[in-house]
Amino acid sequence: MKTRTIAAAIITVGLMAAGTTGCGTDVTDKAASAAVAAALAEASQQASKPGSADITTTVSGPKTGGRTVRTTGLYSWGNGRGISMQNEMPAADVKMEKFVADGTVTVRLVDAVYYYNIDPVPEGPFKGKTWVRIDASAILGEAGASAMKSGDADPMAGLKTLIYAKGASKVDTETLRGKKTTHYRATVPTDRMGAAGEAYTGMGMTGDLVTDVWLDDKGTPSRLSQSVGGTDLSIDFLSFGGSRTVEAPPAADTVDFTDQVKKKPAGTA
Fold first, then answer.
1. In Å, how far from its chain's centre is CA 3?
2. Given this model, what pLDDT does residue 23 score?
3. Please, which residues have CB within 8 angstroms of residue 45's CB and are 6 or more apart in sequence?
4. How many of the other CB atoms lie within 10 Å of CB of 30?
5. What is the pLDDT of residue 255?
6. Where would I find the beta strands (DSSP E) of the chain?
7. Are 40 and 162 in contact (CB under 8 A)?
8. Contact status, residue 168 vs residue 40, Cβ threshold 8 Å
9. CA distance 195 to 143
10. CB crowding 106-117: b at 16 or more within 10 Å, else e
């Protein structure tokens, strides 16, 4: 099983969606960036309130082998446990066709641990197991995994620090899924992001993090797009709801692949 590629693809979604933390650089145009920052800060507050969202995502880059990985599901952050998710994706996107007969992989993220649902293992020491477990620290290191457990790791948390970006600006007005939105963009160097920046570096992602966000007329995010180190992520927020809980599968049904992932050289599948 290409566990490192699979884990990295989804962990990247979780990390980038969680936003960035730490200090930043001075803005290029303070007056213009301050106005944009105010709008984005308001968007961050609006997105934090509901506690969960139904989303679709796409992510592509070196960690996905250049493939575009698509997911659909629930993203939750409102229960004080940090980020949790339950998503579904085509097995072909993560080369898991032989592990799921129906062609769909279900992934859960709970307490910085990823679980991948598979068909029951037919034989051997893992006979009957239906979930593969991989700790986020195997990919991101302890600092990155800890950031994902943060109680305020909502999907727009990173916008709170964009006042320190190299540049922040309004791009245009666009229509997304029938809604009129305003498109904003900001750029922050990864070497000024504290623990989040270290997590990016650990995955071979360096340079500037470019964040694009589309806000509707209520200041609510419709789309969040981020690009760093050759990896591109896009999240569409289909709807927002109250706090919803994603539970880890029973331990008896899981097989832990964390050590196998840790032993593989960085950048390998």
1. 17
2. 38
3. none
4. 11
5. 95
6. 52-60, 68-76, 84-90, 104-110, 113-117, 131-135, 167-176, 179-189, 208-215, 221-228, 231-241, 254-256
7. yes
8. yes
9. 6
10. bbbbbebbbbbb
Tokens at 172, concatenated: 């245009």
> How far is 138 from 117, CA to CA, in rounded Å?
19
Which residue, 68, 23, 25, is CA-closest to 165? 25
Q: Taking the alpha carbons of 35, 38, 42, 43 in that order, is the dihedral positive or negative?
A: positive
DSSP 8-state code for residue 22: S
Low-confidence ranges of the chain (pLDDT < 70): 1-34, 37-38, 41, 46-47, 78-81, 140, 143-144, 147-165, 192-203, 264-269
pLDDT of residue 106: 94
Residue 144's pLDDT is what?
65
d(CA 36, CA 192) in angstroms, rounded, equals 20
Residue whose token pair is 């980038």? 16
* Inter-residue contact 109 to 79 (CB < 8 Å): no
- Tokens standing for 167? 């540049």
Q: Indicate the SS3 state at residue 237.
A: strand
Q: Which amino acid is at 260?
A: Q
Q: For the CA atoms of 37, 39, 40, 43, what is the dihedral angle to 10 degrees?
A: 160
